[in-house]
Amino acid sequence: MRDKVRSMFYHAYDNYMAHAFPHDELKPLTNNFTDSLSELGNLNLQFLPQNYNGSALSLIESLSTLLVLGNFTEFEKGVMWLSENLTFDVDARVNLFECNIRVLGGLISAHILASENKSWFRNISYNDRLLHLARDLGQRFLPAFETPTGLPYAWINLKHGVMENETTETSTSGCGSLILEMGALSRLTSDSRFEGAALRALRKLWNMRSSLDLLGTTLNVLTGEWIEYSSGIGAGVDSFYEYLLKAYILFGSDEYWDMFHSAYLAVQKYFRHGPWYHEADMRSGKATYWQLTSLQAFWPGLQTLVGDVAAANLSHREFFYVWKKYGVLPERYLLEHATLHPTERYYPLRPELAESTYYLYQATKDPWYLEVGESIVASLNSHTKVDGGFASVRDVSTMQLEDHQHSFFLSETCKYLYLLYDDSFVAGRNFVFTTEGHPLPVRSLWHERLPEAYITSNRTSFKTSRMSPLSSQVCPEMIRGAKVESACHVPDLRVNHRCTSDAECGIDSTSCRKRTCSIAGYCGLWRFVH
């Protein structure tokens, strides 16, 4: 299986290098290219200069995957080309969020890996050129944050800053998922502006949450007012939750932990319905849209990171059921009718299900997850592989293909599938993967402080009490053998479990089911949600 995934990656990568490089992404059906760095969000191409040759996006996205596969020679060639040719001094309007996670994250990750392993280089001496490029790009991001609220514009021109009459609408993910890359850039350059801008935006966003600790999906960066009040754990919000936890792991600040803990419990209380997660109104908590979105498939992986493995497994199995039903995972699936969304029926080679499969296998070593990976690989080869690479699926009901090989297929989909069968690259090392699959090492020097729970002398005490990894802030690996509550646990309002309404009852610590108030006035699992 490892060799099959390796072959998949090189089929996609080699075709990109042959037919699209140095442009951004490959069109595998026509052996052509697209400069998607400036097209994300259906951008009008009038903003692109005639001599613009792309940012080699797919090459940047591939660098860490090349290292995972052990191809140091191709990694060196990629670093050399980027060092000599890449420039961001172009009159191009880009999406801040996408450029941050794909380009800035890719450059930072590759720089760290290159600087820590200079023996990989045979023909050049690595001189931190990727970091210089990352800093230049980060500086071009900063004008986007110059708003009354500190929330950044969604779009920025790399040469001229914020364009006149630029849209003021952005998403929760768009302004709340910048802290890993920009925080790492500040730690590497000793320039606090990048982390400061991202953190101010994140704090402002968190202060805009409702009394239920829920956030909406879209907002106005100038007024700080919500535009779309309905949200879930999928598109427009997903990486916000992901980055709260991963920022805590990477930087060690309890501020990130406190935000994540509150947000996670609110998700479990208002979005969860059995193994599924619907959308709800941030103001009332009432369900709005009963639909699965393919981006939600990252959630079991995130739950695995906090030790909520049982709940992660339940949701993961439902996502895999939908994958098996159609052969791939459709962009939206209507839960109430158990059918496809009428228009969003596509599959753009997304990695989220493979990502969660990798995390769950690492946590459980259950060989069933290896079989899931085998099924994913078989589907990709059967339905999306073409002579010129791997093509997105336009309609999962007909398997009609679309002429686009997204860069995240190289940076994430192939990487997580490969690591599922060969994790030698990460074995014995601590990494946080960004939302684009770029590995960032966990460094003690980057931590404000380590929680006491991580101190070796304290570990024995964990075996004597009942706890949740979420509440104790402990990696589940440290407490094997202990009775561990699920991280979804929400205690009843009163310690004696007395109640007058369902609102005073919490969520069960082992089954993650909502507890309800009985006629006699006690909280318990009196009825179940199916």
UniProtKB/TrEMBL annotation:
Instruction: Return the broad EC class.
Output: hydrolase
Return the InterPro entries for the record.
Answer: 6hp_glycosidase-like_sf (IPR012341), EDEM1/2/3 (IPR044674), Glyco_hydro_47 (IPR001382), Seven-hairpin_glycosidases (IPR036026)
- Give the signal peptide, or none: none
Pfam families hit by this protein: Glyco_hydro_47 (PF01532)
The UniProt keyword set, sorted, is: Calcium, Endoplasmic reticulum, Glycoprotein, Glycosidase, Hydrolase, Metal-binding
Q: Name one GO biological process term.
A: carbohydrate metabolic process
- Cite the EC number: 3.2.1.-
Protein's name in the database: alpha-1,2-Mannosidase
Per the UniProt record, the source organism is Rhynchospora pubera
